[in-house]
């Protein structure tokens, strides 16, 4: 019982911390978004969750950065309001490389808000290529790194980074439930052997058919969380990637995996003899689990994906999840997992009562 | 013609008085149709007047949408289990072993 209360407690914590903790300040966009080389550019930087007025203008610094060697520091910084900053950049007439245009990152260092960065903020175009020697190299150093309880700011997804606590745990729950399901199928087949069946302790409530019921209940709950993960992912994708279904490798493989598990339930119900159906379903379940691991964890890493962290490293590296997010993300996984096992347990208990009432047990 | 029509009256039609307090309502196709309709029409209703509720204020409403979807998914699962339990209760109640709904 205690773990059910823990589940509710952790999910409530996830809902409160996941929705109320603010994002770190960031830069949404700059105006103008493109400028010619060799002129003084007056740039307006628009912040998100920022409080530019909280520090004196002389202490705020800003840069336009090309790479580690090439950056221009902004001059005559004016704070228009909490979310708007104006600065002048004298763009050299020659670009750092021979292309016709380069994209520069905008960086703001604010004593109160900390550092914020917008990648590829401004496009600088040149008509004719001249020597690159004149490009400025202002040093970026002494940045203010603010450590507080807030989530990182990411472009395009903004506040929807909070979905990490709701969409992502669905897949963890699915994995744990399918592991439990496969484990019970293995146990079912193991104790089906007459020599092993004697080892089952009936006084502790162990029975062969319970393994089959548990395997089925865990798989059903896992399927529910898989569908939830897929549907919530589609909603998020519609607003982050521009389309609900973009044939991303993870989307496709997940859909295949869920269809394999759907077939498990069809297989279970297509036998007149429950004993035979249970045994075949257990065998199928083990094969379904064996195909789940490559479908969800191996194949997606071999192709380009829109999902973060899909190449090489584990799905949640240090770049995708900072320490503040970990403090909510791990409790969220535990909370949702316990909720999944709770639902599966209810389903299992119902099935046991039903079987006893209809004389199948 | 009239006879056929009266025979095929769908069981989902419930008296309006009972409609919102009976469990049957939540199990009916009408309920799911309403939910489906609401889900589809909500973005359209909210997007009126050149306002994009899902994209403004840092896409926070996407998070709300995700939470609502998870909640509804779990509720639908529990309601299905509830319906199965009701059937089982009816079955255990009368010895005739009739599967009344």
The largest sheet of chain A has its strands arranged as: 2-9-8-4-5
What string, H for helix and E for strand, traces the elements of chain A in order? HEEEEEEEEEHHHHHH
Q: How does the overall form of chain A come out from the CA principal axes? A: elongated
Most strands sheet of chain A: 5 strands, mixed
How far the N terminus sits from the C terminus of chain B, by CA atoms, comes to: 29 Å
Taking all residues together, what is the mean pLDDT of chain B? Answer: 70
- Chain pair forming the biggest interface: A-B, 33 and 23 residues
Q: Can you count the helices of chain A? A: 7
Output mean pLDDT of chain A: 85
The best one-word shape of chain B is elongated
Total separate domains of chain A: 2
Q: β content of chain A, as a range? A: 15-25%
**Portion of residues in helices of chain B?**
over 70%
Radius of gyration of chain B: 20 Å
> Could you say which structural class the secondary elements and strand pairing of chain B correspond to?
mainly alpha
Q: Could you characterize the architecture of this molecule?
A:
The complex is a heterodimer of chains A (361) and B (101). Helix content of chain A is 46%, strand content 17%. Chain A has 361 residues and is α+β, with helices and mostly antiparallel strands. Chain A has a five-stranded mixed beta sheet, with no helix packed on it. In chain A, strands 1-3-7-6 form a four-stranded antiparallel beta sheet, with no helix packed on it. By secondary structure, chain B is mainly alpha-helical. The two termini of chain B are 29 Å apart. Classes of the chains: A alpha+beta (361), B mainly alpha (101). The A-B interface holds A 15, 18-19, 23, 48, 157-160, 162-163, 166-167, 170, 221, 224, 227-228, 231-232, 235-236, 239-240, 339, 343, 346-347, 350, 353-354, 357-358 and B 54-55, 57-60, 62-63, 65-67, 69-70, 73-74, 77-78, 81, 84-85, 88, 91-92.
Summarize this structure briefly.
The complex is a heterodimer of chains A (361) and B (101). By secondary structure, chain A is α+β, with helices and mostly antiparallel strands.
């Amino acid at each position: 019982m205690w773990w059910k209360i823990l589940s509710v407690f952790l999910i409530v914590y996830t809902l409160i911390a996941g929705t109320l903790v603010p994002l770190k300040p960031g830069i949404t966009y700059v105006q103008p978004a493109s400028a010619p080389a060799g002129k003084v550019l007056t740039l307006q930087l628009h912040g998100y969750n920022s409080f530019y007025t909280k520090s004196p203008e002389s202490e705020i610094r800003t840069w336009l950065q090309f790479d580690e060697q090439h950056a221009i520091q902004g001059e005559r910084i004016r704070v228009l309001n909490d979310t708007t900053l104006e600065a002048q950049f004298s763009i050299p007439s020659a670009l750092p490389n021979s292309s016709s245009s380069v994209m520069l990152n905008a960086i703001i260092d604010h004593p109160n808000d900390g550092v914020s960065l917008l990648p590829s903020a401004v496009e600088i175009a040149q008509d004719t290529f001249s020597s690159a020697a004149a490009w400025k190299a202002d040093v970026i150093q002494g940045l203010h790194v603010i450590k507080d309880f807030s989530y990182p700011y990411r472009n395009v997804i903004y506040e929807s980074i909070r979905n990490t606590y709701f969409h992502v745990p669905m897949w963890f729950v699915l994995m744990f439930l399918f592991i439990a399901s496969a484990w019970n199928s293995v146990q079912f087949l193991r104790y089906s052997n007459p020599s092993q069946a004697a080892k089952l302790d009936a006084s502790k409530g162990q029975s062969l058919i319970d393994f089959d019921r548990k395997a089925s209940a865990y798989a059903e709950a896992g399927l529910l969380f898989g569908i939830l993960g897929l549907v919530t992912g589609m909603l998020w994708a519609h607003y982050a990637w521009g389309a609900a279904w973009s044939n991303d490798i993870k989307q496709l493989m997940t859909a295949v995996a869920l269809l394999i598990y759907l077939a498990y339930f069809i297989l279970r119900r297509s036998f007149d003899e429950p004993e035979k159906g249970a045994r075949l379903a257990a065998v199928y379940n083990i094969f379904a689990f064996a195909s789940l691991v490559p479908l969800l964890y191996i194949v997606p890493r071999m192709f380009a994906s829109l999902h973060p962290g899909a190449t090489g490293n584990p799905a949640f590296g240090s770049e995708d999840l900072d320490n503040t997010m970990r403090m909510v993300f791990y409790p969220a996984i535990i909370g949702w997992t316990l909720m999944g096992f709770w639902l599966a347990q209810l389903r299992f208990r119902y099935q046991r009562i039903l079987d006893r009432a209809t004389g199948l047990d | 013609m009239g006879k056929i029509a009266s025979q095929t009256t769908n069981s989902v039609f419930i008296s309006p008085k009972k409609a919102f307090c009976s469990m049957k309502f939540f199990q009916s196709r009408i309920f799911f149709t309403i939910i489906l309709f609401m889900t589809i029409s909500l973005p359209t209703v909210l997007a009126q007047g050149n306002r994009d509720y899902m994209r403004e204020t840092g896409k926070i409403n996407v998070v709300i949408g995700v939470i609502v979807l998870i909640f509804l998914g779990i509720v639908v699962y529990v309601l299905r289990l509830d319906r199965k339990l009701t059937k089982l209760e009816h079955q255990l109640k009368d010895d005739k072993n009739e599967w009344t709904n």
